[in-house]
Prior knowledge:
10 helices, elongated, single chain, about 300 residues, MetI-like fold, mainly alpha
Amino acid sequence: MAKKEVASNIYTKKGAKGDNKTSRIRDFWNKFKVQKKGVISGIFILFLLLIILLGPIIAPYDSSETDYEAILAGPSLDHWAGADSLGRDVFSRLIIGARISMFVGLGSVLIGAILGTILGLISGFFGKWIDNLIMRTCDVLFSFPDMILAIGIIALLGPGLMNVVIAISIFSTPQFARIVRSVTLETKTNLYIESSQAIGATRSRILFKHILPSTFPSIIVYFTMRIGSAIIIAASLSFLGLGAQPPSPDWGAMLSKGKEVLELAPHVTIFPGLAIFITVLAFNFFGDSLRDVLDPKIEE
Length: 300
């Protein structure tokens, strides 16, 4: 009989945990669906991810295929967004280029988030000299504008897409480190953390079991908003010839190529510019909506 009661209690606890998780997801959705701009942005981002996955299949032409009879031709039924100075289909290059832009944006910010989270946890939890060392290093990186720092890093490493990812991840790291450190300092003073220390919980358990989960809302919000900035900087570097190299259909490189024929064929510049603008705007709106939902300090 006792065994049945214990088993019953175990299943009840598991069920309660499952119900609690479901309830939190439901509460999140109920708050998020009110954010109209966030919902629309989320749909666009999902659509963009679908394009990235199916890009080579849905693109009407190969990104490097040339049509010499359509050089600088405007939008038409054959070329929906026109053709560039080499007769390549702009619409197809935008679709394939979305994969490059998202790879740089997501990849660089993800690396920066991981490194920054680790440094922020260490800095906030252990404090003392290690906190001073990490934060002063962050201050040095903060003293440089993001674009200038990226150009300096690429000047050392050389132009190329992977070096752009490295550059953006380097100046993204201090931002995440500061955010995570702030949350860690606030969380580690809570009573349940002191109780865990009192009963002999290890530092690693306290860090990864109790403190790290409390940083997720802040990380998710900043991560989403940072992707837009990363896409702009990556496009700017490609525009300057420091990022993706020809014949890569990178949006920034397409802008750079389009400026040479801006008066004759403005569509070569307009469509990549619109792609960058709408994508960055979507991530910023989505991040704003997540902040409104996840930040407990913001009243409904």
